[in-house]
Each structure stands twice: as structure tokens, then as C-alpha cells.
Write a structure and sequence with these properties.
Length: about 325
């Protein structure tokens, strides 16, 4: 018998972000809340308090979660059963990592929507001083809402922070009067995909890697030129190497090697490890190193070179 699916609506952000107000209004809205039995998990005590008597249908059970350690599959399943609920809303604590929740979701619980709310006057400061926590909340959000956004604020600065974590999130700027503008800033790639040889500058490696990983099919048939560390790895066929760079997404703790598989058999013997400027043709096809279809490169040339001045690539 298939596991019952429980939709989870996740609201993240820091204090004063507007999560409570938004959830209150959502549960008052009959278009969303038609009386379905609902469990509302409140993971932080904010400035505003809920008014359950105003919820549409009055079938919402609140459960305060005071400690991150309480987030276990057993507790979540028990709270759902006690509430006799069919869905879950979560007002998440901005100081807790999202993995604590995702790893605790019982089987059958699926995040249906994830929204991130931010208080615009303090957001850039939060990002500068608590980048890991900020990135954690941005990376999987479908919609990012900046409330109390005023005309003197630079949309581009906020836009860049969001895009450093996700290219897929919608972004909304809510003014103090409640009016909303949606982000329409175009993000042109910093390299020319229509050039005979797509030249990837050192500073653009992270952006290029992410773009290829997200849309590998559009690179099929392209020729690229990129500086990368090329290395032999266990299980890779003779004449093939992985080529890539270490990338820091948000902080030093998450630095990892981001690489693609490349066939170097046409350019002669290659050392087991070294930095090269590689010109390669790209395809999108199955390779056993991936265990699925993925970006597969074939080197046209490889010139030995020095490591880039900044060996760890970043998203600017």
C-alpha cells in the first residue's frame, strides 16, 4: 500500500522577515484554507503572534518547536497524528539549517512549496555576516520576498545575492505600503555562447559550471576553452581525466571539486594531475562515470599552465 503523501509548505527567513504575517493571511484565505485539517509548526517566537480564531475553517493545530533537536521523523509523525492533519505548514527558524528539517521529514512528506522572506533593511548585513545561514535559506526557495523595500535600495545588490544561490527563484520586492514589484533583471551569461570557441575566464568558472550542470543540453556541440585542474580518478578509463576546479558556494566549509569528465586521448599523454588550458568539444550523452547522461568533453588541445591566482572559484 503506497505511503500517504503529506504536502509541506515551508516558510523560511530571519526575525522581522514577515513570515508570521504571511502565514496568518494565507490561512485566513479561503482559496488556500477551505477547512483542511492542518498542522502549523512554529519554530521561532517572533514579534507577531498568530490569531487562530481568524483562520478560515478553524481546523489548524499549532505546535511550537523550541529546539532544533526536536525535529525527528518520529516527532513529526506523532505531531501530525495528534493534529489529525492532512498537510503541514512550517514557520522555520532562520538560525537553524534547513537540512535539520529535510533530513527529518517522514516518508511520504513532500515539500510542495518553499518561500523565503527577508526584511530588506537588514538583509545585506545578514548576508555579509551570516552568509552560510542566508545561502541555506535561499538555495531552494521558489520565491524570495524582500519586505519593507524602499526606492533608495539597490535592487541589483539584492538580486545578485539571490542569484548567487539560485538562478530559479522568483524575487519580489514589497514596499512599506504593501505594493509588490517582481524582479525583471536579466542575467546575461558573462561569456558568448554563440562564439566559435566559448572562452571561459578564470573568474567565471563557477557560473559556467553551474550553467552547464543546469542546462547541459544547450552546450551539446559547443567548443569551449577553459583553465582547469585535470586529474586521474579511480574507475575512469585510460586516457580520460576529470577537469574542473574547487568551488566555494557560500563559505569555506562547502568547498568541493566541481568537474566534468573529459577524453584526452586525442592530445597525447597527460600527467595524472596538473593545471591546463583546455580547448574541448562538448556533448551531452551517457558516460559510466556519471552513471547517466551528462556533459562529456573531448579535448582538442591542452596547454600546461600555472594555477589561477584565485584557485578556488566563487560566484563573485
Amino acid at each position: 500500500m503506497p505511503e500517504r503523501q503529506i504536502p509541506v509548505y515551508l516558510f523560511t527567513g530571519f526575525l522581522e522577515a514577515g513570515k508570521t504575517k504571511f502565514i496568518q493571511e494565507t490561512l485566513e484565505d479561503k482559496r488556500f484554507n477551505k477547512g483542511e485539517p492542518t498542522l502549523l509548526l512554529v519554530c521561532e517566537e517572533g514579534v507577531e503572534e498568530y490569531a487562530p480564531e481568524q483562520f478560515s475553517g478553524h481546523r489548524v493545530k499549532l505546535k511550537a518547536v523550541e529546539d532544533e533537536a526536536e525535529l525527528t521523523p518520529e516527532n513529526l509523525a506523532r505531531w501530525l497524528a495528534q493534529a489529525e492533519a492532512e498537510r503541514v505548514l512550517v514557520e522555520y527558524n532562520g538560525m537553524w539549517m534547513l537540512d535539520s528539517l529535510y533530513n527529518a521529514l517522514p516518508e511520504g512528506w513532500l515539500v510542495a512549496q518553499e518561500f523565503m522572506f527577508a526584511y530588506a533593511p537588514t538583509f545585506l548585513s545578514y548576508n555579509a555576516n551570516m552568509r552560510q545561514l542566508t545561502y541555506d535559506k535561499l538555495k531552494s526557495a521558489e520565491l524570495v520576498v524582500f519586505n519593507r523595500f524602499t526606492p533608495d535600495m539597490d535592487k541589483l545588490a539584492f538580486h545578485k545575492v539571490v542569484r548567487g544561490a539560485s538562478r530559479r527563484s522568483d524575487i519580489a520586492y514589497e514596499a512599506p505600503d504593501g505594493s509588490v514589484q517582481y524582479d525583471d533583471i536579466v542575467d546575461p551569461l558573462p561569456f558568448d555562447l554563440d562564439a566559435p570557441v566559448v572562452n571561459i575566464e578564470d573568474r567565471d568558472y563557477a557560473l559556467w559550471y553551474r550553467d552547464v550542470a543546469e542546462e547541459p543540453k544547450k552546450y551539446a556541440g559547443k567548443t569551449v576553452r577553459v583553465k582547469a585542474r585535470c586529474a586521474k580518478r579511480r574507475g575512469i578509463p585510460d586516457g580520460w581525466l576529470v577537469m574542473g576546479r574547487h568551488v566555494m558556494t557560500c563559505c569555506e566549509a562547502d568547498i568541493s571539486f566541481h568537474a566534468f569528465i573529459c577524453d584526452f586521448r586525442g592530445v597525447g599523454d597527460m600527467p595524472d594531475d596538473g593545471w591546463f588550458i583546455v580547448t574541448a568539444k562538448m556533448e551531452y550523452k551517457f558516460h559510466r562515470s556519471y552513471g547517466r547522461k551528462g556533459p562529456v568533453l573531448t579535448a582538442v588541445s591542452a596547454e600546461a599552465c600555472e594555477a589561477p591566482e584565485q584557485s578556488v572559484a566563487t560566484f563573485y
